[in-house]
Design a protein that fits this description.
- The chain is mainly alpha-helical.
- Helix content is 61%, strand content 5%.
- It has 20 helices and 6 strands.
- The chain has helices at 16-22, 25-28, 32-48, 54-72, 85-97, 99-102, 110-146, 166-190, 210-216, 226-231, 234-260, 288-311, 326-349, 354-361, 368-377, 382-399, 408-412, 422-425, 428-433, 443-461; strands spanning 151-156, 159-165, 193-194, 221-222, 268-269, 351-352.
- The strands form 3 sheets. A two-stranded antiparallel sheet has the order 1-2. A two-stranded parallel sheet has the order 3-4.
- Helix 8 (166-190) packs parallel to helix 20 (443-461).
- The radius of gyration is 31 Å and the shape is elongated.
């Protein structure tokens, strides 16, 4: 068994069961690039401050670069004997360059090292998710432009409520995703402080330059308290919270996709490339992508709850419990980065069936509010107009009619305020087109919404 780098205090070898239980290399090895990059910055600072010789710095940088190249070429096999990615890299470095490698850890602890590596890893994945969401926004805008006049029923309580356009429905999600993007961007700003130099918890007596390492690694500043630097994972929790909200939005959208492509609705049809079949029922075309996104939402929620629960009872500073931070974060990031592109492609390739949407809109009295508004605009108090329209709906329901089917005489039997222009007022296309209030379904408003999202996307993709 390899000698532990921390083994000076111990008289016995670590039990094999403990060694396996304690090791994290099986999952934290994905931090190899961050670990090597952070070590390079630390070595440069040590040299600039005269803490180690520039000759040692050169050897360290060359050794770390060779390790990075070998890892990426698949030539390095990490071992649980060295527990984690940090000690594996340090052991490899010392094997390659000798005593100079042993000087790398001067003025540093694994506590601030892992805090740095993990923060850099989390930070690096935010642009990836944001980029995927910007592509989904583009897809939604592209689809919305096609269907600004497509009337569909809007729902409350999953009951047909009022006429909207399919474009407005899509842009509702586009606006939710815009907030998801800004949440991720805000998270990236808050986490951009460097924990390196915090040491185990109390900093160091060496004359280190924390501003130098922070700048070298692309951080805005070093963290201002060394205890805080090694003790918290709120940036990871904030990311997972943002990812959970994002997945909630995708899950709700998935639920509607599942409804819409069913025979009961048939508002859309998913492309064959983004559907699956049944092993026994040849007629089936299943929305498995939408169902999996809906299902994986619970997985991301679970990752967030796992880390929240891990962190809730830990006193300052570092505790080994915090080794449990990485797997849920890795899983949440992996899950989201897998879900968003395939969801985007599913939306981009779906076939919209506006005739079926219009047919559904024609049933369910979704122009009842417009009928009441018609009476109100002609002088009747809204509550009275509401009651009159309700009586008309009840009569239509009993006779199997719609409001448009009623004759003017039948309407005037309930209120003499009805005139020939009522039919124009309750026409579904007009009901939708006249809803020009800010944020509404009228073409002028969905055009504004689409242009706003397109500008939002353009601003970010130009940078």
């Amino acid at each position: 068994m390899a000698k532990k780098l921390w083994g000076g205090r111990f008289q016995k070898e670590t039990d094999d069961l403990v060694n396996d239980f304690n090791a994290s290399i099986q999952f934290d090895q994905r931090l190899y690039k961050e670990d090597i990059t952070g070590s390079m910055a630390h070595a440069k600072m040590l040299g600039a401050q005269g803490i180690i010789s520039m000759e040692d710095v050169g050897a360290i940088l060359g050794g770390l670069q060779s390790i990075l190249e070998d890892v990426e070429a698949g030539k390095v096999e990490f071992t649980a004997d060295n527990e984690d990615i940090h000690m594996n890299v340090e052991a490899l470095l010392t094997q390659r360059i000798g005593d100079a490698g042993k000087r790398l850890h001067t003025g540093r602890s694994r506590n601030d090292q892992v805090a740095l590596d993990f923060r850099m890893y989390v930070r690096s994945h935010i642009p990836t998710v944001v980029g995927q969401l910007l592509e989904l926004e583009t897809v939604l805008c592209r689809q919305a432009k096609k269907w600004q006049t497509a009337v569909m029923p809007g729902y409350t309580h999953l009951q047909r409520a009022q006429p909207i356009s399919f474009a407005q429905h899509l842009m509702a999600y586009a606006n939710m995703l815009r907030r998801d993007i800004t949440r991720l961007e805000d998270c990236a700003v808050r986490m951009n402080e460097c924990p390196l130099g915090s040491g185990a918890l109390a900093g160091t007596t060496y004359p280190i330059d924390r501003w130098m390492t922070a700048k070298e690694l692309g951080f805005d500043a070093p963290m201002s308290n060394s205890l805080d630097g090694v003790s918290d994972r709120d940036y990871a929790l904030e990311l997972m919270s943002a990812l959970s909200i994002l997945m909630m939005h995708l899950s709700r959208f998935s639920e509607e996709i599942i409804f819409w492509c069913s025979w009961e609705f048939k508002f859309i049809e998913l492309d064959d490339a983004y559907s699956t079949g049944s092993s026994i029922m040849p007629q089936k075309k299943n929305p498995d992508i939408a169902e999996l996104v809906r299902g994986k939402t619970g997985r991301v929620y679970g990752d967030l709850m796992a880390l929240l629960t891990t962190m809730k009872g830990i006193p300052l500073a570092y505790n080994k419990d915090m080794q449990e931070d990485k797997e849920p974060v890795f899983d949440a990031i992996d899950t989201v980065e897998m879900c968003v592109p395939v969801f985007s492609a599913m939306i981009d390739t779906m076939t919209v069936l506006p005739e079926n949407m219009r047919k559904a809109a024609g049933r369910g009295f979704i122009n009842a509010t417009d009928c009441a508004d018609y009476l109100t605009k002609r002088g009747m108090p809204f509550r009275d107009a509401y009651t009159v329209t309700g009586r008309l709906v009840a009569a239509c329901t009993a006779q199997g009619k719609t409001l448009e089917d009623l004759t003017l005489d039948e309407l005037r039997a309930v209120s003499d305020l009805f005139a020939e222009d009522v039919y124009e007022a309750i026409n579904l296309e007009n009901c939708m087109a006249l809803r020009k209030s800010y944020g509404g379904p009228a073409v002028s408003e969905t055009t504004r919404q689409i242009e706003a999202i397109e500008a939002f996307v353009a601003e970010r993709t130009a940078n």
